[in-house]
Design brief:
D-Maltodextrin-Binding Protein, domain 2, Beta-Lactamase, elongated, alpha+beta, 22 helices, 5-stranded mixed sheet, 5-stranded antiparallel sheet, 746 residues, 5 domains
């Protein structure tokens, strides 16, 4: 029965359907006890005794069969257990590991034939040893996305909720948001620690090694609250006699779902632990461990383990007393019969016969009750199996992916030569166009018309080892791309789950082709800009040189208007030179390699501002630098961004005016956003989309010099960092220029 249930569990797990029955809650157990009928009568106990003996015999047989069938591993499994995590993990008076998780891993190891060695230590040490591979399994670990990247988790076996423990009289903390701004104590590397880190609780966290240490800090008046499991914290308070502490309500932000955690990639051990969990839940060992450690004290629970032994003793005493009384009566009757008439002897014989008939009738009734109970149990098991099969069939029929069950065929030497298609779902026909009646029962080499069974080597490996496998492939007979996942429900069989990814692959190839074309166009455009800029510089330098010679050697031959026109030529050639230099800088950005590092943007902004202020002596400038998060990018390129933005802010501040420039930043989602704000002349937001275009200028005139390329360089640099730029402004009030960079990638 256990083997069949394990197979059902394994098949369900392979398609993502896993069911575990949670242990009964305390309230449910107490309710059951309080609503139970009155005390059993002596006759009912006698009638129940054969059923009890039959049940003990069946359990003994199941345990013996489980012990015989359990496989033994030569490798010893290294298990870690915490020192102070009651009732889940602790050490007893002799220093040996104890607790719910210790009994649980021992029970699973016993039914799966695993040899284990349990070592103890602090949680942080045990966790780091598991991640580093020095341990194979931790039996009580709360599952979280962060931990899933480091280790693998079994199916969950327990869950609990956390709460904040505060000093009595202090306001209770209802949730994580209410804890912001407070000094929170947590156990290092605990699930509560990870939950707070995921929500950016970093500055005011106090880390301790054990739960008693954290609760002692709060009880002594230090810090604001301690976050841990409400059940465990309450037990520790009682065991250690901590005073003046009280627990808040369970927080709704998260709950601890405990599982076995194994070192990353140990799939074989994980499957054994999952199957072991199912087995001990089926044979009620899990319930006994759960009630031993996790059920609150209850008078009935305390006396329950003594109830049946007492009943057996009472029944035995009753039987002995009855036997003695019957013996005494028989002696009296014997003496009476000796003194009675022969007809009295006949009457007593008749009474004895009636008594034997009644006893036999009672035995038959008891056997009938036991038989009816067994029939009822069998019917319930069959009903459960039918429901499970119905759920599996519904899932099989309604999956949009194609699903097919195959049977591998071998030659006389045990080599895989082909496989037969056993059954398919409607999704199979949708993706392949092959109808079930055409291919079910057919050999793959014939059904697909390929001559040889497709992917025989890969499928044979899965059917032989039972290890799942996934791959993407182009299937020539159908001219389609498929993504295929393969699992094995039992030796010699395999199941394929696949979906048509042809459209996705075609879209990816088209996107790659467009990216290559775009990259080629950009390179051509950059090369053209670079070539044009270089070709333009030579004649401009000639114009500048001859203009200076004309102004220096022949100025006396020019009138006032001629000198003015000569100045116009010199100034415009200088503007043209600046434009060409900016174009060269813009074209180089496409070829310059980006070397990213952590940048102190506050220090950079201060240095750039000092350089620019020396060139603007006629302006009263004040710089305010707010708290700036560290930037992640190329130092020289980001420096050019700050130089262009601060220079732009200073340029549009009128001379002789007191002006304020502010630099700040903040984190928003997956971006770090920075801004440069000024109190200059501003701009009309209707034209904000033109600010970052090449040669696009919203303000002209000699007092606002520039080439119209500076903000284009800013945009190009930020885009190469994977970020974005934008601006806001109001005419006459100032402007704010923003740029956003991805958060630290290190």
């Amino acid at each position: 029965m256990i083997d069949n249930q394990a197979r059902i569990f394994y098949c369900q797990q392979s398609i993502g359907v896993v069911m575990l029955v949670k242990p009964p809650t305390k309230a449910a157990l107490i309710k059951e006890l309080r609503t139970a009928p009155g005390k059993p009568s002596l006759s009912s106990l006698f009638s129940f005794l054969p059923l009890l003996l039959l049940t003990i015999a069946m359990l003994s047989s199941s345990i013996a069969n489980g012990a015989v069938n359990a496989a033994t591993d030569s490798a010893e499994i290294r298990v870690g257990s915490e020192l102070e995590f009651p009732p889940y993990a602790s050490v007893d008076e002799s220093g040996q590991p104890a607790g719910f998780s210790v009994d649980l891993i021992k029970a699973v190891s016993e039914v799966m034939g695993l040899r284990i060695k349990i070592s103890t230590g602090s949680w942080d040490t045990m966790w780091n040893d598991l991640v580093a591979g020095r341990l194979d399994v931790l039996p009580i670990v709360a599952k979280s996305p962060e931990r899933q990247r480091l280790v693998d988790f079994s199916l969950p076996h327990t869950e609990t909720y956390d709460a904040f423990f505060v000093r009595r009289g202090n306001p209770q903390i209802q949730n994580l948001e209410a804890a912001r701004g407070k000094e929170i104590v947590v156990m290092r590397s605990d699930a509560a620690h990870h939950a707070l880190l995921e929500r950016n609780f970093r500055d005011r966290l106090i880390l301790v090694e054990t739960i008693p240490a954290g609760l002692s800090l709060i009880a002594s008046g230090k810090h604001d609250a301690f976050l841990c499991s409400k059940l465990i914290g309450t037990i520790v308070i009682n065991e250690h006699g901590l005073k003046n502490l009280e627990a808040g309500p369970p927080i709704p932000d998260y709950k601890r779902v405990f599982s076995f955690a194994v070192k990353k990639g140990d799939v074989e051990l994980l499957e054994k632990l999952n199957q072991g969990l199912l087995i001990i839940k089926t044979n009620r060992v899990y319930d006994r461990i759960y009630e031993k450690w996790l059920t609150a004290d209850d008078p009935w629970r305390t006396l329950e383990k003594y109830f049946w032994p007492v009943i057996v003793i009472v029944v035995t005493i009753t039987l002995i007393a009855g036997f003695w009384l019957v013996t005494l009566q028989l002696l009296v009757k014997k003496r009476t019969r000796q003194l009675s008439e022969s007809n009295e002897m006949l009457r007593l014989a008749q009474e004895g016969l009636e008594e034997r008939v009644a006893q036999r009738t009672a035995e038959l009734a008891s056997a009938n009750v036991a038989l009816q109970s067994e029939i009822t149990d069998r019917k319930l098991a069959e009903k459960g199996l039918r429901e499970s099969e119905a759920r599996f069939r519904s899932l099989f029929e309604n999956m949009t992916e194609g699903v097919a069950l195959h049977e591998m065929l071998y030659d006389d030497q045990g080599r895989a030569v082909d496989y037969r298609i056993v059954s398919t779902n409607p999704g199979f026909e949708t993706h392949t166009g092959l109808k079930p009646e055409q291919i079910q029962g057919q050999l793959a080499s014939i059904a697909y018309g390929t001559g040889a069974a497709p992917y025989l080597k890969e499928y044979a490996q899965v059917a032989q080892t039972g290890q799942a496998y996934a791959f993407e492939t182009f299937f020539p007979p159908m001219q389609r791309h498929f993504r295929v996942s393969v699992t094995s429900p039992k030796h010699g069989q395999f199941v394929t789950v696949f979906e048509d990814v042809t459209e996705r692959r075609q879209a990816e190839e088209a996107l790659q082709r467009l990216n290559r074309e775009l990259e080629f166009s950009n390179r051509e455009l950059e090369a053209f800009s670079y070539s044009v800029s270089h070709d333009l510089k030579a004649p401009i330098r000639a114009i500048q040189g001859f203009s200076r010679m004309l102004g220096g050697e022949h100025a006396s031959q020019l009138d006032k208007e001629g000198l003015r026109l000569l100045d116009v030529i010199v100034n415009n050639t200088q503007i043209m030179t600046n434009i060409i230099d900016d174009l060269l800088a813009l074209s180089r950005l496409g070829r310059q390699q980006i070397r990213k590092s952590s940048i102190d943007l506050a220090a950079m902004a201060g240095q750039v501002f000092d350089q620019l202020q020396e060139q603007e002596q006629d302006k009263d400038l004040q710089l305010t630098i707010q708290d700036l998060p560290k930037a992640w990018g190329d130092y020289s390129l980001i420096n050019q961004v700050i130089l262009n933005l601060l220079g732009n802010a200073i340029k549009f501040i009128k001379a002789k005016e007191t002006a304020s420039i502010e630099v700040g930043g903040y984190i928003q989602g997956q971006e770090t956003i920075y801004y440069v704000k000024d109190t200059g002349i501003g701009f009309d937001e209707r034209y904000a989309d033109k600010l970052f275009g090449v040669f696009q200028r919203l303000h002209h005139g000699p007092e606002y010099e520039g080439t119209g390329v500076g903000l284009s360089i800013v945009q190009r640099i930020i885009q190469r960092h994977g970020g974005r730029v934008w601006a806001e402004g109001t005419v006459g009030e100032g402007a704010i220029f923003y740029f956003a960079l991805p958060k630290n990638e290190a």
